[in-house]
Fold each of these.
Amino acid sequence: MALPGSVSTCLSPPVHYMICKLGFEKKDIYDINNIVSENGEVCWQAVTEHLHYLESDQSVDYIKSVQSLGPVCESVNLHFKSLTKDQFVVQYAVWFHWTNYTELFLEVFDVLQYAQATEVVLGLMKLTSCLERALGDVYLLIGKDCPFLLRDLLASEQLAVVFGQDVMDVLRVFIGSPYGLNLRNVLWHGFTSPQEIPAKYCAMLLFLTAGLGQLLQTYLLKTKYILVHRPYVTFISLEELVAFPDLNHETLCVAEELVQVSNFIFKSMVPFWMAALTAFKQSRYADCVILLLPQLEAGLRLLFTTTNKCPNRLLTAEMLKKHLDNEEINQLPSVLEEPAMEFLWDFLNHQEGPRIRDHLSHGEINLKTFPRELANQIVAFAITLLCRFSDEDTVAFKQLFMEIKRSSKKKAVQEHVIIKPLMTCASCYRSQFHPISRLKKQVLECMKSIHLWPELPTVSEEHVQSVKGLEGNTETSSLFLKMAEILSQVQQYLPQNCCSPDDPINTIVTERLLVKLCDKHVCTLYSPRPVLEVLVVLRKICTQCHQVSEQVIASIELRYKQWMKKTLRSRQRHNYLRMLNSIKFLSPVLRLILLLITLEVINVHLVCKKTPSDYQQYLKFLKSVLQYTENLVTYTSPEKNKWDETEELTNKALIKIRNFSDRKLTLIQSAT
């Protein structure tokens, strides 16, 4: 698909004027000695006196304030340029300690000496995210539940108490308010090209951060409070995030060529893409992703407006929504296709996913230890978009692939030998972090736990049968009969020839069967609220089942050791043997519940076809199953050990499940 690349700016005219022109209209020159002392102490009055307020409601007049602060920013920028690195460190370094990342601010000073546009933007993005995180730490000195949005944080009473309201108003002129320069948002959402951000605003925010450090020190000395920094977010289970192969030098070189010919990129944004790829090559993985994420958003915005024929939305589009403002269907998902949409939701939106942009833009990640694995996934995915949305009829694109054909000395294909593995991985991607995907993972993890039971050391069966009341127990036999009836009701939804009606559940509901069922693809995009509500309950049920399994394993191992050492009292021995008898039916019960959960997940979208009355009945039924599993956790805990009650509890639960299934109110029954 060919996309228009002639747009000169992604800033609306008012925002472009605010950022690129307004702060340059006044030509006043201010003596830096009136703004900062020789030892680097910020004179806040010399800054706050440039604030203007509306007469109507005394809120900040952002236009006049930006206009008035423009020359101050220029003076600060020139001041920093006049300092050597050593002078800057002596005067200012100590005032950045409150941010918990002093070296970042020293890096920004270095960037300002050369004012290379792309590096200035990168420095400003890192500065604003780190500043936001530090301000959140200050907020928590006297407040609870730090606001998620920067604008709410800056408008909070708590920060006004620490720094003063006029100081916070100055900050809001630069970041946090959509009516001001709003530098943080326009940068992190990919609206600006490198040349549109004046370096003097980066210098001013560096200066203000030092000034905030001075004010904070005064406040801490006065109150005796101690500033505590929240721990960084860490990415665990990185193997779950790996969807693409490791990028090598050759692939990155091809990517650099694609950047020049792809219609996915605004031409004014090319420097950002090249800088991102360079950062990856230099192992600066956080820098790479910080540069690339806003550009992915900008490219998707361009694709969104082209696909939906709404060029007026280029400056504001929210690309991943299901519907447009006029309630028409958003066509972007159909163009990107489901795997790409699932990747975007996984890495950016799903609560249990890495949520890379949120964590980076809010300063929640240690930039020094950002994992290569994560950066590799974002870069690889970006490369596939560059390739997919390049116009193959352009001369430049044809020349690129002719060069690749000659260099590879292999038969060229449309997606050629270097990019094809990435394209294949992108087309096969399945969500890992949607609640449906997480539930499937839970089911399999629980099954692995239950699968361990037969391997656990136990006393002989003769000892178990010696307990009075357990020999030929008709209640236990009744449980197996009920389970067989339930299984027969769902057998038609299982793979053909996987079992016969006479097979015991433990040989039918195996890890292999659940893996096969969980491998069935279920659409995860735009799951409606009823689906999500059902998934919440199913996940809780699965969690309780896993807890039961882990408790049983721990109890069996402990009691066996005590049995062998002959340290169990008579009552404990009796209870241990009853437990061994109970797990004969608990294992198939848990397996059956996991099977039913899996079948419900596969058909979960059918919940939307239920009438409101049937849906409420269904939800109530699921919650009753949840109640059963919660009680099971209690009864099988080391503190309770209520094995006789467990049997009675299970009997009632199986009757309820069988009867409900008989009425065909479950999702799988609804599918017929």
Amino acid sequence: MLEHKEIYQGKFLGKMNSYHHQVAGEVYAVDEHTFLIKNFIYDGNGPDTFFWVGSSTRPGPQGFIIPNEKGRTNVLLPYLNKDFTLKLPDGKKITDIKWLSIYDLTIQENFGDISIEEGFEPPSSQTLTELSRRAHRVSSLSVVIVDSKTISLPEFNYDGLGSDTYFWVGVGPQPSAKGFKVPDEKGYLSPLRSYRDENVILRLPGELTVFDIDWFSVFNVETGENFGSIIIPDNLNVPPSLIKVLPHTSTLPNCEPLHRDVQVSWEIFGPAITIEIAGRVADDEYIAFGLSGSSTEARMEGADVAILYMDTYQGYATDYNITAKSSCVSVLGANRGVCRDDQLGGTDNHQFYLGSRVDGLTVITYRRSLIPSDAEDQVVPTDRPASLIWAVGKLDKFKRPTFHRLWARHPVLLDLGRATAQKNCVSFLDIKEPKPAPWEPVKILEPSLRLIRFMVGPSGGQRGYEGITGLPASDLAWYVNGFIAPELFLRRELVYNFQVEGGNDPHSPTHYHPLIITDEPIGGYEQFNEEQRKGIRVLAGVEFTRRGQPRPIAAGRLCLWRQTIQRDRRLDNDVTSFQKFRNNLQLLCEEKGQAANMEIRPDNSWPDVVYYHSYTHSGMGWKINIVDRFGGLTSAGHTIVSGYGLQIAVLLLSVRYWF
């Protein structure tokens, strides 16, 4: 990978002229509104000193204050070799002024300054031509170079039918196989999906900038075919990227990127392999990495993985085996799903070695045997490429992995036993993308409502269940009267009928969801041990045997909201409302069987807030508010569903598609 050695800071204006109080520093124009000050020095002894700009011939009392690097207009304190940016207030531009000064308003003295030359052109985004249209319906509007690392493709199109096609950059007169992958807009390095009139923002990897490349292409590496491209002009006057580069170098001899935010390094020595996983993940997230359940595709079922995370200062690399796409649940006395090896009767074959978390970068190193002793674990191939999978997701309060937010749809094929070591990783980028805004929460508040229907559907990514409740999500969530995880309002001493259609096959680890009501917010009562259950009050949905063992009683046939097309669930965060999301779902119900009916009558012994859950899985349900009367309740930022709106939701449920 090409790496640009000299860091681009913007357009250099010059060094500050120093007159008093040890003022010094270099000044760059970042864009038309912003200065970058490097190595700034000021002794702080001026009585009434500010960053001061104006349009007169030279610095004087006619001008205005620029807020400091913290956005404040306080008197300047001492600085010693500080780097920071200053933004002109009220939308003013660098071209509107003639100088920047360190100026004292009381004594009207200029301690240091720099002039803005007549005709100066500050950096700004540059609009180029459209992508050439060569194959596979590749097209876009005019490509925009936003800054030194960011390329914008407005209304980008690609049919997704190229077998080994990527965003691709390189040097030379035209696109060729001697180039480098650019992660897609979500950071993935797998072959490109289809796009239709989408606004795509790309960041060049590592320390690479637009000054290091001559062209950008949608390129098929397997065939060497350019589907569409654009030439990048020399010496573009664009702003510098403000994305922080996070260097990371492993001591292991091999390294490959799995995603913009995840890298794997390794070394085989004797009968064991040492693996290091480095990733930009949140404090409460895990990274999963291991052998796929298939040699030809990214398959969870049958996979042999490590779940890696840091818990404050302690790192973990726990051996897991995946037998189903669900959390680890008991199926007729045997555990199935994403389970620790010791939950399946095996032993942990992973030896934790090192762990750290610095600047948002989690690094875990562990060892495992190439030929494990447990039947649950796979042999690590060294004579052929290994088919690998990875994922990133949240941990629940018990440090169990929940449904992932990042994962590979295509298998990662790596020759772990390659004869010649290669390091193909680059620095991480500290991209601070805002978390998607959650879908508007729904409150079902209808005084005359007595029948409530519970079905299951996709949890909707970070905007859906996780965004609405603030809790880690499962693969599925409860859809109540057609809405995902709504808040319910029930009145004490009234009788309600809950019709439950979450699946009644106890052989299924994924689609067996008896309904239960408790006083704790997580759910998955079956997964709690006896000691944990002592602190949970069960209000409905469970009977206890004479030996005190729980037995769910509200399991009905399966009614599943499912996507109407083969959609990439990694794109759920792009859907801005639940209504739009549900428009791409259809309701599929089992033809045999019927709904289970759970009759409840909240009384004065019930807490004011309880929770509806799946008996088997956590992260599917939400609140039930138990009230003495309905009058005076407010929406408080929620959508209130009652009357006509609720009738429409129930009407939607009358459309059925049978399995």
